[in-house]
Amino acid sequence: MALDTIIHLNNVSIFQKHNLVLTNVSLNIDKGEFVYLLGKTGTGKSSLLKTLYSELPLVEGDATVAGYDLKKIKTKEIPFLRRKLGIVFQDFQLLTDRSVNDNLLFVLKATGWKDKQEMQKRINDVLEKVHLNTKGFKMPHELSGGEQQRVSIARALLNDPELILADEPTGNLDPETSEGIMNILLEISKNGRAVLIATHDIMMFDKFPSRTIRCENGKVIDSNH
Question: Which domains does the chain have, with CATH numbers?
């Protein structure tokens, strides 16, 4: 396994409850790669992502993500694995009762940051990356859908992850806003992080062509092979 490999799966079978969803999944994703995970609803895209961030246990095969062996990972280690990952969901999952700033502060406190100045500096840094540096005081409901999604990307970047997993990040957004989100995710991959995007938005794929991993009929097909 190369040093730059951030996701390594070998003959992995993925189960949802007791149903076999994907079988014989083998793939490597390296730092700085921008990869699409394609497939219709129900083909196992989300189950594959959940396996990567240890929401679903690894039952069969071998898998390493960000240096963690998913077969041997202990429950108490899962938060440390997740700190190395930034996860972006379709529905933003922002805390609606507090400002953008406080949403980000909440995550930093929860992941063990202590120094107030350092926390504020980090928040400013990530908001700048997603072009929202003037919106920290706003409440989520005062932002457009695209801005809320950018906040959730900022949140995913807080702990300087090695890998961003995005599950349908443009699912609820119009085409123009989606393009802005994709540009931000591309920029993130150019800074050496791996970005894996589950999507069925084929238009995005035409605009931003890249490596694809496709889930169909219980198998994973990689455009690199």
Answer: 1-84+163-172+194-202+212-225 (3.40.50.300)
